[in-house]
């Protein structure tokens, strides 16, 4: 019996048939090289790198660097000053989109923890030597709880949330504090691990003493859930 002919590939509306092709190994390699180039520009310290320096860093020819720079320049991610290359203002636009998406992705885990422990829960992100609260969830059923504003900043060396962001792997899974940032306030926080480029923690803050061995595992579980949502 004759086998039916395979269904032809149909192009999306408005696209010619020859445009619809699976991603090739060559296009993936080009993307990787473009990302490596952008990383090399970002990693340069002091004077902006030259085309020749970028070619050596990425491991491609100067001609390839010029080709790779084209799409990055058109999106404002890099800018050329003669033979030198710097990051463009488009990077700032991308960075500005990070926190809203980070906030949305983390809210389910933060909400679950706040309702479970009956205390204010927050996601804190390190920005250099400062820690900033980027998402805060308050419990819905308690008579009173700590009011903690999104955008609040403090040194990373102070408070459970700040110190937790840099807890080393294999070290304590969470950290507790008492009165570091506000007299009479207690905190427990755990780091968000496994998300490249992110130094962050999930923390609980309350006006009554917290038992770290009871709250810690729950905070750690929430931090792991946030990390999973961001991967």
From TrEMBL:
A Gene Ontology molecular function term of the record: DNA binding
Pfam family, one: HTH_IclR
InterPro entries: GAF-like_dom_sf (IPR029016), HTH_MetabolicPath_Reg (IPR050707), Tscrpt_reg_IclR_C (IPR014757), Tscrpt_reg_IclR_N (IPR005471), WH-like_DNA-bd_sf (IPR036388), WH_DNA-bd_sf (IPR036390)
Residue span, HTH iclR-type domain: 28-91
Keyword annotations from UniProtKB, A to Z: DNA-binding, Transcription, Transcription regulation
Protein name: DNA-binding IclR family transcriptional regulator
GO terms classed as biological process: negative regulation of DNA-templated transcription
Taxonomic lineage of the native organism: Bacteria, Bacillati, Actinomycetota, Actinomycetes, Pseudonocardiales
Domain IclR-ED: 90-231
